[in-house]
Write a structure and sequence with these properties.
alpha+beta; about 40% helix; Beta-lactamase; about 700 residues; seven-stranded mixed beta sheet; Arc Repressor Mutant, subunit A
Length: about 700
């Protein structure tokens, strides 16, 4: 019993000790809190009030672009740069003083200085004289708040004379140009003052005098460098300058994505389409300032990383050779007296299975505004932004539509002879072929076979010298079928502003016949490439793309980093056709280039890579830059086209060639076939040379300009 009482007494003692310790700890805590609040509270409050964290983003160079073989296409060239960062408490007078001092050390371009800038600057430089521009009565009204500061300032601007502005010296104007740059940025945001033609002497002297130039710094900037000059320039796109900054029409969108107003961004095509990838991660610096805006300390949050790199699908060796061919053949064809309106030509080479664009070439002859002479310009962009009537190249789609609708069947024989329709000029093929089947119709490009197919499609009946009445819903049927191949719809290429072409607005029987042979709706060269690829690969419409991979940036020059994303082939649709139907059209295309009197055998019969394809000639109205010379009725011209794939048994490349406004009249140079033969020869010769790198023989390209009658 005594033992139990003793244990209880020990427990009570320990609890008392514990409570006492807790009491002491709470007392110390309360004392500390009281000390912080009562004794140091005001000090901490003032410290909090006098500091502010401001995070500033510093731009980084954009990502590079490589071709499919690792050659640099677009890079960044480092530039010596002089910058200015405005502090929050910097006054206009302090900025002006710094600008005046900097103007003594560097040469600044003054071409962007406007008269309004000069007036603003004159007021800033001459405040007393500016006040005298206002009458006593006006100052009295101002003091009575009947007119405001804005009105006073506008009156001063209006009354500044030409003589006043002439008082500004060249040094003043240079100071003004620098001051404009200072004033165009936001507080604590680095602004480029000069990054073009900064001499080593300027860079050195500014660096030595930074202490007397508050806010000024010397650094390294960059500008885009195009390794192959103007090659593909229209497709690669452009980047805004530091002066331009963010595009006004997209300002809010970019600001919401943490861009600064003076950031350089892609403003067209690949640079624009892949802006999010190429822009990179900007460096972040945290500035701690007091309430007056003075920087107390600076902390680097992240160094930043230049933009990701793009690997394009384009083979630049092949691209350069194709562009050379286009230039040579355009100049050659231009010598023909019938080809005075010819000014452009296009070629697209595409992998028919993956959609990778191997070459996207376009050339245009245009007048140089300064010299008045004609010059060759890059017009690769025209492959997706301009469209034309392409002629018989579409007849493969017409035959397959005939199969789909039951208008014809593989092997159907029709009689090719002129069609005599009431109140309509006689319609015929370039030659009367008599009884022909579908394969022969493709081989010799029979118009009549296509027309009779469409007449059946439109539930009509041809009666010599009688009217032709067709169910015009066949327009929709034919166009819908053509769209399965990519004709008349967007191809889906990874570039902005792609054209869909132009569908003719009027519908009547005669125009339906024209649609069937490619002489009504207009199509782009990229659509032709997708169309022939669909036939070449067995009926799958593959989305074309010009970017192959996105890669991590690396520091080493001209090296590619690890792959972040590879662009996989995208199948947009499968055409509504049996495999044997597609095989039959492929055979017809092979016959065009390799058998008998096929329309392209004169150019391709001896090619060792077994080409297949379809030629096209379309009579169209000229719609080029010289149209205004011809009044309301432009002249008729011939557009030449060619679609092809090779080898015919196992295609690895698909090609589309288009030469708009090639000549006037019924015959002229077959520039489409000449270009097509040389391009395919170049592709396969280059492939062979790469497979045998020790070969020193030069690539031999077939070159022969032939003249042929209009056989489309």
């Amino acid at each position: 019993m005594n033992v139990v009482k003793k244990k209880k007494k020990n427990v009570s003692f320990r609890l008392n000790i514990l409570f006492f310790v807790v009491f002491l700890l709470f007392s110390v805590l309360i004392l500390r809190l009281g000390l912080v609040q009562i004794v140091y509270g005001e000090d901490f409050k003032r410290e909090i009030e006098r500091t502010e964290d401001i995070t500033v983003n510093n731009p980084v160079p954009r990502g590079k672009m490589f071709d499919r073989n690792g050659k640099v296409i677009v890079d960044n060239t480092p530039l010596n740069a002089i910058t200015y960062t405005k502090f929050q408490n910097t006054s206009q007078e302090e900025m002006l003083g710094t600008a005046e001092n900097l103007a003594k050390l560097i040469v600044k371009d003054t071409s962007k200085v406007r008269e309004r800038d000069k007036k603003d600057f004159w007021i800033l430089k001459n405040p007393e004289e500016a006040k005298e521009k206002i009458t006593e009565e006006e100052w009295a009204l101002y003091n009575e708040k009947q007119i405001d500061d804005k009105k006073i300032y506008n009156l001063q601007l209006e009354r500044i004379t030409k003589k006043d502005l002439e008082s500004l010296t060249s040094h003043d104007i240079e100071t003004l140009a620098i001051y404009r740059e200072f004033n165009s940025g936001y507080a604590l945001t680095q602004q480029i003052v000069k990054n073009k033609d900064v001499t080593p002497e300027e860079f050195a002297v500014v660096s030595e005098n930074l202490e007397s130039l508050p806010g000024v710094d010397t650094t390294t900037d960059w500008e885009r460098y195009y390794a192959f000059g103007n090659t593909l320039k229209t497709v690669l796109g452009n980047v805004t300058s530091s002066d331009e900054g963010l595009p006004k029409d997209q300002l809010n969108e970019y600001l919401a994505r943490d861009y600064s107003r003076n950031d350089r961004v892609g403003k067209s095509y690949i640079e624009l389409q892949y802006e999010e990838v190429l822009h990179g991660q900007k460096g972040k610096v945290k500035n701690i300032t007091d309430k007056a805006g003075n920087i107390l300390s600076t902390e680097v949050i992240s160094e930043g990383e230049r933009g990701k790199d793009l690997v394009l699908t384009v083979d630049m060796d092949l691209q350069l050779e194709v562009e050379k061919i286009l230039e040579e053949e355009l100049w050659n064809a231009k010598k023909n007296p019938k080809s005075t309106l010819l000014d452009r030509a296009f070629v697209v080479l595409m992998n028919p299975h993956t959609g990778e664009i191997l070459t996207m070439a376009g050339k245009q002859i245009a007048k140089n505004e300064e010299t008045g002479k004609q010059e060759m310009r890059d017009f690769a962009l025209g492959n997706i932004t301009t469209s034309y009537e392409v002629g018989s190249a579409v007849k493969g789609a017409t035959i397959l539509t005939g199969y789909q609708t039951g208008a014809i069947h593989p092997g159907t024989v029709l009689y090719d002879s002129p069609l005599q329709i009431k109140d309509t000029p006689v319609k015929s093929s370039w030659k009367n072929f008599g009884s022909i089947n579908d394969l022969r119709a493709l081989q010799v490009s029979s118009n009549v076979y296509m027309w009779k197919t469409v007449i059946e499609m439109g539930r009509g009946q041809y009666v010599p010298n009688g009217p032709l009445k067709l169910d015009l819903t066949a327009f929709d049927t034919l166009r819908q079928s053509f769209s399965q191949f990519g004709l008349g719809v967007k191809t889906g290429i990874d570039l902005p502003n792609e054209s869909t072409g132009y569908p003719g607005p009027v519908k009547h029987s005669g125009l339906l016949l024209d649609l069937a042979i490619g002489q009504y709706d207009t199509y782009t060269v990229m659509q032709l490439a997708q169309y022939v690829s669909t036939i070449a690969n067995g009926g799958y419409r593959v989305q074309p793309h010009i970017v192959k991979e996105i890669r991590e940036p690396v520091l080493e020059n001209n090296e590619m980093g690890p792959v972040i994303k590879a662009i996989e082939p995208t199948i947009l649709n499968r055409i509504d056709a049996k495999d044997e139907w597609i095989d039959r059209v492929q055979e017809g295309f092979r016959m065009v280039m390799q058998v008998g009197d096929g329309t392209a055998t004169g150019y391709f019969r001896d090619a060792g890579y077994s080409p297949a394809g379809k030629t096209g000639t379309a009579q169209a109205f000229y719609d080029g830059p010289e149209r205004s010379k011809f009044g309301k009725i432009p002249p008729k011209v011939m557009n030449l086209s060619l679609v092809s794939f090779a080898p015919s048994e196992n295609p690895e490349v698909a090609m589309a060639v288009l030469v708009p406004w090639a000549y006037q009249g019924n015959s002229g140079p077959s520039t489409n076939n000449v270009i097509g033969r040389r391009v395919l020869d170049t592709y396969f010769n280059l492939k062979e040379l790469r497979q045998t790198p020790t070969t020193s023989e030069e690539v031999t390209i077939t070159d022969g300009t032939q003249t042929t009658e209009n056989n489309e």
